[in-house]
Every structure is written in structure tokens, then in C-alpha cells.
Amino acid sequence: MNPTAFLTELDRAVRQLVATVQTELEPLAPAQLNQQPAPNAWSALECLEHLNRYSRYYNPRFAQALARPDTSTNGDVRYSWAGRKFLDMMAPTNTRKVKTFNYMNPGGSQLGREVVAEFCAHQQQLLALLAQARRADLNRKAVPVEFLRLLKMRLGETFELQVLHEQRHVQQALRAVGGAPASVAAASVPDGAAA
């Protein structure tokens, strides 16, 4: 996919996530946002806190990658083998559960509205980073993977992975409070990119 269309789709998906969280989750009472739909299942706020923990790691790494000058031209967005595997695993359409690392697991927490505000702030940062990325080589291996920092992923595939991960858990948060609207389920990032 060409980089401009790719980044436009990611931007649209992030804006949809923010709109969904602001209209569907933000108005709810803290008790409802903290309610677990089943034993050992995350509440809506736990889902968002999980995403905040990832954003605290990845947003600065994106900024660092974008701060380095590019020496190559920006061709169509390409994927590594590992990148495709991670994207397939995180796709919101993939119903298989993925175990998270303990330090990224907010399970059992009593959280407040500040989690929603932090999530929205991280998304605004991500939108600014996506805008910056329009002048970057999205195929450069520049972003260390959070759980295996020796492994670097391409900038474009890591942006996409972050957005897919967020879509997956925002859908989970919506289910935790009583159902995911079709607009979130239908919102996807680059057609066929994660297939």
C-alpha cells in the first residue's frame, strides 16, 4: 500500500477509536467502567490501562524513530515475517486470546476516569506521530519490540500493530460494559494489510 493511503487509514482508525471511547465509555459511571464482565476478565478501564501501558512504551519509540533522518525514499509499505505474525495475532478479527506479560496486565485494579483521559491523550500523541511519519521511511527497521528489545520492527508495521492492538482492546472494553457497536467492529486499518 502506498504510504500516504496507509497513514490516512491509520489516522482515520485512531480518530474513530477516540470518538468511540469519548461517546461510549467516557460518559459511564466509574463503577460501570470498573465492572468485570466475568471472573478474571478485564473491566473497560483495565482494557484502556493496558493500552496506556503500551502507549507509554511505543509513543516515545515512535518519536525517537521519527527524529532520526531518513536516507532512503519511501516506497510502498512492506512487512517483515515477524511483523505479519504480530499483526495477525493482534487483529481485532482474531478471536484467540493472547496472554499478556504480568507488567502489562492491569487485572484486579480499581481505576478512575484518569485512565480514559490518559488514553485520549496518548491517541492525540499518536495522531501527531502519524502526521510526522508522512516524511519518514515507513520500511526502516527502527522500533524495538516492547517484550524483545533486540528485535526491531519496521516503523509502518509497528504503527499498524499499535492501532490494531488498540482496536482489539477497545472492542473488549465495549463488550465489558455491554456490547460493541458495529462502527468499531467495522473500523479496520489498511485493507488486507494484516491478512
UniProtKB/TrEMBL annotation:
Residue ranges of every copy of the DinB-like domain listed in the record: 22-173
- Pfam family membership, one: DinB_2
Q: Which InterPro entries match?
A: DinB-like, DinB/YfiT-like
**What protein name does the entry list?**
DinB family protein
